[in-house]
Amino acid sequence: MDLLEVRSISKTYGSGETSVRALKKVNFSVPKGEYVAIVGESGSGKSTLLNMIGALDNPTSGKVLIDGKDIFAMKESKLTVFRRRNIGFIFQAFNLIPELTVEQNIIFPVLLDYQKPDKKYLEELLEVLNLKERRNHLPSQLSGGQQQRVAIGRALILRPSLTSRLEIWTRRTAVR
Ligand SMILES: Nc1ncnc2c1ncn2[C@@H]1O[C@H](COP(=O)(O)OP(=O)(O)O)[C@@H](O)[C@H]1O
Ligand SMILES: [Mg+2]
Questions:
Q1: Cβ atoms 71, 161 nearer than 8 A
Q2: Atom 2, ligand 1: residue with shortest CA distance
Q3: What are the residue ranges of helices labelled H in 59-163?
């Protein structure tokens, strides 16, 4: 079974004369372990598509299945937990919490999920992300690249089955 299945997703923003049809019956699937880059000109619907896959917004029609589960058929409360445990987000603006240190930012999703941090895995992440020397620093004391790596650590700490890196590859030129 594919980890991600996008089935005939359409999204129309607004209604009437000013409505925008951002996605028109998009279909694809991604097996577990595969890396996919979505490339397209500005305004072609990349962010809209990633927002649907991450269950951050609802499609007008169509389905998204993650690990065989129809995410839009879940109640909001169940979806919130499912999203936190199964989908890792790295936002373009990293959205780190300014009052928390590097380490606290990374383990934040674990605390939200009422779990205890896996200390060994945290050390592993700090090591591969080259953040060991910065673990007690605040986001404002970090370079852009370091902040981005904290956001990656936070996206991975709960070992999600799906990680989406929103916006990083946005391009202005058309590539088809
Ligand atoms: N909240 C919104 N309301 C109305 N139109 C929107 C909204 N968000 C995006 N759009 C429109 O939908 C289309 C796709 O946008 P988007 O998914 O952000 O494109 P991309 O990420 O590929 O640049 C664009 O024409 C954009 O203007
Ligand atoms: Mg975009």
A1: no
A2: 13
A3: 76-86, 102-112, 119-128, 144-156
Q: Which domain holds residue 96?
A: 90-156
Ligand 1 pocket residue status of 44, Cβ below 6 Å = yes
Q: Do the domain assignments include residue 83? A: no
* Closest ligand to residue 40's CA: 1
Look up the CATH number of the domain holding residue 10: 3.40.50.300
Mean pLDDT value of segment 98-124: 95
Nearest-10 crossing angle of helices 102-112, 119-128? 140
Provide the domain count of the chain: 2
For the residues 98-113, what does the mean pLDDT come to? Answer: 96
pTM of the model: 0.80
Residue 165 Cβ inside 6 Å of ligand 1? The answer reads: no
How far does CA 132 lie from the centroid of its chain? Answer: 24
Range in 60-64, 138-142, 156-160 with the lowest mean pLDDT: 156-160
23 lies in the same domain as 55: yes
Pocket perturbation via mutation, ligand 1, pick of 24, 39, 48 by most ligand atoms within 8 A of CB? 48
**Are residues 69 and 98 both part of a single domain?**
no
**Boundary of a domain, candidates 14, 43, 73:** 73
